[in-house]
Amino acid sequence: MQNIQLGNLKLAREYLQCAWSLCKLDPLLLNELGVVYYHEDQLEDAVHVFKQALDIAASVDAEPKAWISTRSNLGHAFRRLGMLQEALEQFDEVLRQGGKDANIFSAKGLVLLEMGDNRSATMALHEALAVSPQDPIATDLLSKAMDAVEEEPVFDKDEELEDSRRIEELAGQLERVKARKARLRDRETESMILDDDED
Predict the structure, then answer these.
(1) Contact 62, 27 (CB under 8 A)
(2) Topology annotation, domain 100-152
(3) What integer is the mean pLDDT of 129-137?
(4) Which of 74, 152, 160 is CA-nearest to residue 113?
(5) How crowded is residue 105: how many other Cβ atoms within 10 Å of its Cβ?
(6) What is the value of pTM for the model shown?
(7) How far is residue 153 from each of residues 5, 59, 157, measured CA to CA in Å?
(8) Is 23 in contact with 29 (CB distance < 8 Å)?
(9) Does the pLDDT of residue 64 top 80, yes or no?
(10) What are the start-end ranges of the H helices in 60-101?
(11) How many CA atoms lie within 13 A of 171 on its CB side?
C-alpha cells in the first residue's frame, strides 16, 4: 500500500500478487490490487478485481460499510470505461451504505453531467458542497453543471406541445365564455327594452 502511495505501481503490483498467491480470501488485498490496475489504466482488470473483492466480502458476511471504498473504486473504474449507468449505481450504493463524502457526491455529479442529466448533477454537487463547502472539485463541477442547466430549454418538445395545446384549449374556452356572456347581455338588453315598451 505504501508503494501505491509513492507511485511505485510495478513494485506494489508484484507485492500484492505475491500476497494474493498466499491468501486468496482477503478482499482488502484485492481492493488494493484493483487500485494498482486502475492507476495503470488496466480498467477491465480493475473492475474484475473490485467485483471479486466485493464477492469475497459478501461471502464472509463482511459489514457492507467496510466495503464502501471498494464500491467507490468500482464506480470510478466504470466511469472511466464509459459505463455510466453502472458507475451511478455504485455511487448510489455507497451513499445508501452511509458513505456521505464530498468526493462521492462529486463523482456522482460528474457521472450525471456525462450522462447529460445536468439538473440531477447540480443537486448532487450541492450535496457535495453541503458536506465540504470549500471543495474545489465540487465547486468547479457545479459551475459547469449550472452553465449547462442555463442552456437547457425550460420545457422539452413534448411538454412544449402539451402546453401549447392546453393554451389553445383555454383560449377556446375563454372565447366561448365571452360569447355566452355577450348573448346573456343581449338578452338582458332586449328584456329591458321590452319591459320599457310595456310601461
Answers:
(1) yes
(2) 1.25.40
(3) 93
(4) 152
(5) 27
(6) 0.71
(7) 45, 48, 9
(8) yes
(9) no
(10) 68-80, 84-96
(11) 6
Q: Distance between CA atoms of 128 and 63, rounded to whole angstroms?
A: 25
pLDDT digits (tens, 9 = 90+) for 36-55: 999 999 999 999 999 999 99
Cell of 100: 456521505
Report the C-alpha gap between 1 and 35 in whole angstroms.
Answer: 10
Rounded to whole angstroms, how far apart are CA atoms 173 and 111? 46
Q: Which residues touch 84 (CB under 8 Å, ≥6 apart)?
A: 78, 111, 114, 115
Contact (CB, 8 A) for 115 and 84 = yes
Q: What are the Cα distances from residue 101, in Å, to 26, 68, 96, 134, 199?
A: 25, 11, 12, 13, 88
d(CA 174, CA 180): 10
Give me the residue label for grid cell 484493483: 34
The domain 1-93 having CATH identifier 1.25.40.10: the answer here is yes
**Grid cell of 47 as nine digits:** 473492475
- Per the structure block, which three cell numbers stand in for 190? 332586449
